[in-house]
Write a structure and sequence with these properties.
By secondary structure, the chain is an alpha/beta fold. It is about 35% helix and about 20% strand. A five-stranded mixed β-sheet has the order 4-1-3-2-5.
Length: about 350
């Protein structure tokens, strides 16, 4: 594999998808969907619930294209996924270890039955119109993601709810937002799905005008030139790429293998960072370190003897990409300036 290839020639195609749709037969669909993906070498996670589908998978271009045709035009979903929010990107190596199709009560967990995107949802804002909206003084801009995601990057002037999970967003709204004061609220998230529920929830609580970024940060980074961007940093993604930047080029972030917190370059330069064992975010959690240290020892032994370790896959991929990431980022910046 040549990891120095430009992004358009990377060998793996990544598909992120979500759609709020009526899927009362989600349980019956689960094994059929899993079999389709596994038979084509597709890996990743898809969540099925009575309210729809959500997830990210990767495979060869041919495999992902076949999956898209099957999802949108095949008999199993019977066109119920038409209009789904779908984003494609490329990866230099397979970003997932296995294929999982999970059944859950919700495709994004908020535990607020009054939030029903199929019934009411905020106003979608296209990426090219987002900057002019969020620069208005009468608009309150809220990042609906969790604290570890916000820590890698966010939009300028955005409020950080400092949540550990999306279910806490309801508490943030109750404590910090007021429908009588905050007449216009704009929200964003990684791919748009959390904002659909969040906007529906705010409307149910009496907020008058609620906007959300269509396609989320990922679509914005794909469509808006870096020279015009109001997004600072990198966007956390839920796979072994860890983060992406403008043009959806793989970012510089890595994961702490003890606590799974994303790490910036500064985090990895911190005195509390020990590769595979601890980081500044979990330095005081001694219980995690022993297991992490043993896993790291097994990985290093495996490397020494030329034997692959299951937990080594992500670390190996990260190491192989390291040099390529910077070159790809530079190429992306050059293209945006051209």
């Amino acid at each position: 594999m040549n990891v120095s290839l430009p992004q358009s020639q990377q060998p793996y195609k990544v598909m992120a998808i979500y759609k709020f749709a009526d899927l009362p037969d989600a349980e019956a669909i689960q094994p059929v969907l899993a079999a389709f993906c596994c038979s084509r070498g597709i890996k990743g996670t898809l969540i099925l619930a009575p309210e729809g589908i959500n997830g990210t998978v990767a495979g060869t271009t041919e495999a992902i294209d076949a999956l898209a045709d099957w999802l949108f035009a095949g008999p199993v979903f019977a066109r119920r996924l038409e209009g789904a929010e779908v984003k494609y990107s490329k990866a230099s190596a397979m970003p997932f270890l296995r294929m999982k199709v999970r059944l859950k009560p919700e495709i994004v967990t908020l535990r607020a039955p009054e939030a029903n995107p199929a019934r009411q949802v905020g106003t979608y804002v296209e990426p090219e119109d987002w900057n002019s909206l969020i620069e208005r003084n009468d608009v309150v801009l809220v990042d609906t993601r969790n604290d570890y995601e916000v820590g890698l990057g966010t939009f300028q002037r955005a409020l950080d709810p400092a949540t550990k999970s999306f279910t806490e967003f309801k508490d943030y709204v109750a404590e910090h937002l007021d429908p009588k004061r905050d007449k216009k609220v704009a929200m964003f998230c990684t791919g748009g799905i959390r904002c659909e529920k969040a906007s529906s929830y705010l409307l149910s609580q009496g907020f008058e005008e609620v906007f959300h970024l269509k396609g989320g940060i990922l679509r914005y980074l794909e469509m808006v030139p870096e020279s015009e961007s109001r997004f600072s940093g990198e966007c956390f993604v839920f796979d072994e790429r860890v983060s992406v930047g403008h043009g959806l080029v793989e970012g510089e972030a890595t994961l702490c293998r003890a606590c799974r917190h994303p790490l910036t370059i500064l985090d990895r330069a911190h005195a509390d960072y020990i590769e595979g064992v601890s980081c500044p975010h979990c330095a005081d959690e001694a219980g995690k370190h022993a297991a992490a240290a043993e896993r790291q020892r097994q990985m290093e032994l495996g490397r020494k003897h030329g034997v692959a370790h299951l937990g080594d896959a992500a670390a190996t991929v990260a190491a192989e990409r390291k040099a390529a990431k910077r070159a790809l980022a530079e190429a992306s910046r050059a293209r945006n300036k051209a």
